[in-house]
């Protein structure tokens, strides 16, 4: 029987369960590319419940214990004295969420002698050292597509929030003001802007589709070009590299995975090649940008705004400069963990566990590493130190 170690974010400070704003969530069909929603044999929760925090337990306890497995859930994940590190030594399975990542670096993987499955309840497994997982033959899997639309909606919201200067305007009313001129001195219409998406995968394509009705000029860069019909349908301009894209647009929206080819892609040089007063929205991974170069570009006015929900590390220190830099519209890492998304990734996590314990194949689209190599989605989207891809940089 297996020991499953699950790292989840802390409960709400107001207690668990919360008072829900709504009684249900809408049922949605297959994902846009036809991939089916998660198909576990059953779930022990009501969709719309808060599942991603410690007391939510991803709705897994009843199922795992009924199968004789042990479930340990904690939010104490950082440092050698953390509960995570103590429990890791004999864990067979680690489940973690990108919103509250349990970093599985090479040292921790070396300590986790029994570990055979690192499961991301969400999307993005860069908190796992994939090279180390490959060497140790640990399977790495994630719930592909579970929150892609959730993130796309958040990115569109943050594009609008920045361009229309929403958050500063909101602050004026909260603080008793009615300062129209102060609100609008940095407010623009989105219509007519050049908007560039980096990485037109599941999230990037969903963003392009959602932005098209705003009558903007859409651009994109991806290592693989989209089908011609889609480029025509959305009137997309393709750029062969990141440099070409960023110098041609007013707003850059980043949806690439973090791997050696995208790490610190947005540095001072690239930022300075952008149009003055550009905006960046990054809901992909924080380390795609150089932290202090973003702050500097906002201070000088090279960037007009920066938003996103991804930070490094997570949670960031109270004095992390992105908390207080000018013209930011940051949120914590929440875009992919709406109650709607949680229902999907909790179900997908259970589907993966059921297949793993039954020694059945895990869906190819959920796989990042298997059998000592990148596999499934991992083989298409990730690179390791040993495998270079035709990336941008
Ligand atoms: P997909 O795998 O569907 O898309 C990723 C795309 O990135 C692919 O088209 C891939 O191209 C492309 N790509 C890979 N490397 C590069 C590169 N160097 N330059 C440009 N494009 C590149 O992933 P998703 O759209 O589902 O997710 C994207 C990322 O978003 C995740 O990796 C994760 O980091 C982040 N994410 C954030 C969430 C949040 O809550 N904020 C939640 C979910 C995801 P190709 O296929 O040719 O390799």
From TrEMBL:
Homodimer. GO terms for cellular component: cytoplasm. It catalyses: formate + NAD(+) = CO2 + NADH. The keyword Cytoplasm applies. This is Formate dehydrogenase. PANTHER family: FORMATE DEHYDROGENASE 1. Belongs to the D-isomer specific 2-hydroxyacid dehydrogenase family. FDH subfamily.
């Amino acid at each position: 029987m297996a020991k499953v170690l699950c790292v989840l974010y802390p409960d709400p400070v107001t207690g668990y369960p919360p008072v829900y704003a709504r009684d249900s969530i809408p049922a949605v069909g297959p994902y846009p590319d036809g991939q089916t929603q998660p198909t576990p044999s059953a779930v022990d929760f009501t969709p719309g419940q808060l599942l991603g925090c410690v007391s939510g337990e991803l709705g897994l306890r009843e199922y795992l214990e009924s199968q004789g497995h042990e479930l340990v859930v904690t939010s104490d994940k950082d440092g050698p004295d953390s509960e995570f590190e103590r429990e890791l030594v004999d864990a067979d399975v680690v489940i973690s969420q990108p919103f509250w990542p349990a970093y599985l670096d090479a040292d921790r993987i070396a300590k986790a002698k029994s570990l055979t499955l690192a499961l991301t309840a969400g999307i993005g497994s860069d908190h796992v050292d994939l090279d180390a997982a490959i060497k140790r033959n640990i399977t790495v899997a994630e719930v592909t597509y579970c929150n892609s639309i959730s993130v796309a909606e958040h990115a569109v919201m943050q594009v609008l929030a920045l361009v229309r200067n929403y958050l500063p305007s909101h602050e004026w009313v909260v603080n008793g003001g009615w300062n129209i001129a102060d609100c609008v001195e940095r407010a623009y219409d989105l219509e007519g802007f050049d908007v560039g998406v980096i990485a037109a995968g599941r999230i990037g394509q969903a963003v392009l589709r959602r932005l098209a009705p705003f009558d903007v000029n859409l651009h994109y860069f991806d290592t693989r070009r989209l089908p011609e019909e889609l480029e025509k349908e959305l009137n997309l301009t393709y750029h062969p590299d990141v440099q070409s894209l960023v110098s041609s647009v007013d707003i850059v929206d980043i949806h690439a995975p973090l791997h050696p080819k995208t790490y610190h892609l947005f540095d001072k040089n690239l930022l300075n090649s952008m149009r003055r007063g550009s905006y960046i929205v990054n809901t992909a991974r924080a380390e795609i940008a150089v932290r202090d170069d973003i702050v500097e570009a906002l201070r000088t006015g090279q960037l007009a705004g920066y938003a996103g929900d991804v930070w490094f590390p997570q949670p960031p220190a109270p004095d992390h400069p992105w908390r207080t830099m000018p013209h930011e519209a940051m949120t914590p890492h929440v875009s992919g963990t709406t109650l709607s998304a949680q229902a999907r990734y909790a179900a997908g996590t259970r589907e993966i566990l059921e297949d793993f314990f039954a020694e059945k194949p895990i869906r190819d689209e959920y796989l990042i590493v298997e059998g000592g190599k990148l596999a499934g989605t991992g083989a298409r989207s990730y690179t390791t130190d040993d495998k270079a891809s035709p990336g941008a940089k």
